[in-house]
Amino acid sequence: MPLHTLLVDDDSIILMIHDRILTKNEWPGTWGRHLNGQSALHRIREAKPDERLLVMLDINMPVMNGWEFLDALKSQPAPCPIAVVMVTSSIDRQDHDKADTYDLVVDYLDKPLNADRIAQLLNHPKLAHLFA
Amino acid sequence: MTHAHWSVLVVEDNLGDSFLIREYLQEDLPEAEVTVVERLSETLELLEKGGPFDIILLDLTLPDAQGEPLAKAVVAAAGDRPVIVLTGLGDKEYGIRALSWGVADYLLKDGLTSEFLAKSIRFNSERNRYQLQLRDSERKYRDLFQLSPIPKWVYDLETLRFLDVNAAATRQYGFSRDEFLKLSLKDIRPASELPALLAAVEEVRKSPESPTSGLFRHKRKDGTLLWVEIRSNRIQFEGRDASMVLAVDKTAEVEYQEQLRLFESVITNSHEAVMITSAEASTPEGPPILYVNETFTRMTGFRLEEVRGRTPGFLHGPETDRAEIDRLNDAIANLLPCNLELVNYRKDRTPYWVDLFVAPVYNHDGVCTHWISVQRDITERRSYIDALESQNRRLREIAWFQSHKLRAPLVRMIGLLEMIETDHADQVPSLRTLLEQIGQSTAELDSVIHEIVQRTES
Q1: What pairs with residue A108 in β-bridges?
Q2: In the CATH hierarchy, which fold is given to the domain comprising A3-131?
Q3: Residue in chain B nearest A9 by alpha carbon
Q4: Which of B13, B219, B262, B424 is least crowded, fewest Cβ atoms below 10 Å from its Cβ?
Q5: Which domain holds residue B156?
Q6: CB within 8 Å of A68: residues ≥ 6 apart
Q7: pLDDT tens readout for residues B297-350
Q8: B458 in A contact zone (CB under 8 Å)
Q9: Per the CB < 8 Å rule, is B449 touching A91?
Q10: Chain A contact probe: residue of B407, B445, B452, B454 with most A CBs at under 10 A
Q11: CA-to-CA distance for B423 and B419, rounded, in angstroms?
Q12: Total domain count, chain B
């Protein structure tokens, strides 16, 4: 039943900022920080079936980048409901277009998160089932 | 030559004379069948009905006609058949005159014997038959000349004037027969050809026996030119030294040959390499090469002798795109023209980019017999494209760098500023203005990065 959000970014300062912004804006559920895709994937594999997961995913990371993470998740689906929001400093159109090709990705946001972007996510129709 | 029987028409009103003629014929020409009539009117009637007479014996004094009018009327009605007149002794001069009216012979009644009569009939019949044969063969030869579909004429070797022309010649040249007969050979030749004409005529004069021939330029009445193949034989024509000429129109062939030569020179002188292969002799490896032009040799280093009979595959190498080769083979299998760009290899194994256009060539029956391929060396254009592409790649790398590396710390600063602003700005009042100014600067920096990325993308 509970919502768990995975903040996946190799930039620890960004992770710290996002952590505080979520807190300040009363983001629902729990969340954890992951410095690469691999670490986030481990957490997802261990999820309980009644959990609901939201991944805030950066693209460029060491060990396993955002794309590799999405591919892995596609070939071995999560054991519970899950959605991905790209949160990245990339303003490259090709990255944006590529993200659109993944069904799991529901939105593409510019870093850093702020109050406006949090509000956008909370009202996102494709995320409503995770907050319910 | 003897006849099965003779049919003799005797036109004689004197019963004594006609009886005597019967007797004579009975004696020396027993196979003769004799019919006797007494008047011109009966004679004309019989001849008109087509009586089967071989010869006519005519007395020149009949009740209804005499002398010259009688002789001429019978000769006209007799057509091809000989008419022999019978006259009295005193009419000897008259008999001689009768020869000018078209009769075949004259006989004097008074000195007539059976032997002499029979001899005259035989002689005149045979001579007549011979003349008819001669006339027939003359007519046949005349028809061969007149009705031949090939233009023919006879010209005077001395004056070069036309002595006779056939219908095909009048059609070919546009002059009527009468116009032709007022012209000479010089009038159907363009001025520039006159020396050649005189030389050709001289050759005919020198070779009385053997026919001479050659290809010449002739001119029609309307001034248009044509190519003709001339064959001429020396003949005697109405007592003149003449030459009979056959003039076969070769304009289409000559123009076709010239067109072929023109096309050939286009291929030979083309700045593009040209290769012709045989579709009919094609093997699983491809069609064998029949021809390459000099530009091909300059482009590849291979001479025609080195490549003739080989299939074009020897031009390919490690960098040749197999997918393009498959596309080419597909087009060949489906008899379709094909355009592609390939890396080929020269004789010294250096690679070059070639723009290749390949098209099938069909014969009259619609069967593909050859492939023609036109090849252009596009190495320079390709290296220009490669340079452009690598420049574009570098630009994209810069954009990516802007987007990812440069923006990451900026994003961090923006996030940190917001935190300071919300958490601490109230504690230090003078800080708010400073933070706002730093915020403006980072936003400005961010918009510059956005703009750079956008420009590299458009």
Answers
A1: A86
A2: Rossmann fold (3.40.50)
A3: B408
A4: B262
A5: 148-249
A6: A37
A7: 999 999 999 999 999 989 999 999 999 999 998 998 899 999 999 999 999 999
A8: no
A9: yes
A10: B407
A11: 6
A12: 4
